[in-house]
Amino acid sequence: MTLRHFLEITDLTATELAQVLVLSAMPTADLGGPLAGAGVALIFEKPSNRTRQSMEMAVVQLAGHPVYTRGEEVGFDVRESVEDVTRIMEGYHRVLAARVFDHAVVQRMAAVSSVPVVNMLSDHSHPLQALADVLTMTEEWGSLSGRTVAYVGDFNNVARSLTQACLMMGAHVRLGCPIGHDASVDEVDALRRIGSGSLEHFVDPAMATAGADAVHTDTWTSMGQETEKAQRREVFSRYQVNDALMSNAAPEAVFMHCLPAYRGYEVAASVIDGPRSRVIRQGHNRMHASRGLLAFLLGVRT
Ligand code: CP
Ligand code: NVA
Predict the structure, then answer these.
(1) Pocket test for ligand 1, best of 118, 259, 262, 293 (most atoms within 8 A of CB)
(2) Looking at ligand 1, which residue's alpha carbon is closest to its atom 1?
(3) I need a surface site. Which of 74, 163, 213, 301 has the fewest CB within 10 A?
(4) 222 Cα nearest atom in ligand 2
(5) Considering every ligand atom, which ligand is closest to the CA of 258?
């Protein structure tokens, strides 16, 4: 079996992404328990609700045993090197998963690991979240092809992975981000080479949401950026997804957010708690998408 890591959505081809979504939608019993008797390490340098819970349950559903470890316990590059941690843990586990501050840590793990390494969020990307996002939109519409997906706010880890996944699935992505918190010219060029979708970017959030089938946003202050919170609230103040911004989208448009959400900041309570919101379904889909991804990395195919 070929060793595969999952650090970014683009570690999959479009065909493989479609396969992961098929596996994610399959009944657990049909996946054959590929982790029987095996462990999966889940290392968290940052807090988590959804990612920890959904990954632990996905591992159990695949007949494996999750081992949760706090970042301080392993002490990447403090207690011992990333490489030593990885080489030891690969002897205990079939998969190593980590949520890290610095994306280079998961890249260094993947460089020496003989078992799959999964990125459970880094400063650069959040590909497990994007899997659940496209799974949720696929359930909503049947297919993303030709659909318009808007993302408003900070072009961060969540936005990057979402954009990659949507482009790979043939959607039109419209970003609405303030200057300085948007995708760089080079990155936009690189993103435009992904898949069969299209990418437009705007400074005006209303331009991004015009006619959109889904409107996504995320926190203005990601984990690790807490000292910038006040300044960020000022920069992003006109990027709140509220009823006025949603009224600009398609009549049936849905609202999505990876959570945790900060009501009154990046989203109005009336939107996230209203009838267009899909955030709870989206959160639940984290478990199904993680199970599908793990099964794929372990060689399960339909
Ligand atoms: N969306 C997400 O990754 O949530 P957690 O930080 O709670 O895992
Ligand atoms: N962008 C956020 C996502 C949290 C799930 C962060 O990195 O904190």
Answers:
(1) 259
(2) 258
(3) 301
(4) 8
(5) 1
Q: Are residues 150 and 17 in the same domain?
A: no
The verdict on residue 1 lying in a domain is no
What's the rounded Cα separation, in Å, for the pair 298 and 302? Answer: 13
Pocket of ligand 1 contains residue 48 by CB under 6 Å:
yes
Do 57 and 185 fall into the same domain? no
Residues 6+ apart with CB under 8 A from 177: 151, 152, 153, 154, 155, 159, 183, 201, 202, 203, 239
Same domain assignment for residues 46 and 187: no
Mutation pick for ligand 2 pocket among 52, 121, 217, 226 (CB with most ligand atoms within 8 Å):
121
How much is the pTM?
Answer: 0.99
Are residue 56 and residue 160 in the same domain, yes or no? no
Beta carbon of 130 within 6 Å of any ligand 2 atom: no
For 266-293, how does the pLDDT look when each residue is reduced to its tens digit (9 = 90+)? 999 999 999 999 999 999 999 999 999 9
Name the DSSP class of 213.
Answer: S
Are 121 and 133 members of one domain? Answer: no
Q: What letter represents residue 167's amino acid?
A: L
Share of the chain above pLDDT 70, in %: 100
Judge contact between 126 and 148, C-beta under 8 A: no
As beta bridge partners, residue 302 has: none
My answer on whether 212 and 264 are in the same domain is yes
Contact by Cβ (8 Å): 150, 216: yes
User: Residue 250 sits in which domain range?
Assistant: 128-282
pLDDT tens-place string over residues 286-297: 999 999 999 999
Decide whether any atom of ligand 1 lies within 6 Å of the 259 Cβ: yes
59 within a domain of the structure (yes/no): yes
The secondary structure element, H or E, covering residue 95 is strand 93-99
Taking the CB of residue 302, how many other CB atoms lie within 10 A of it? 10
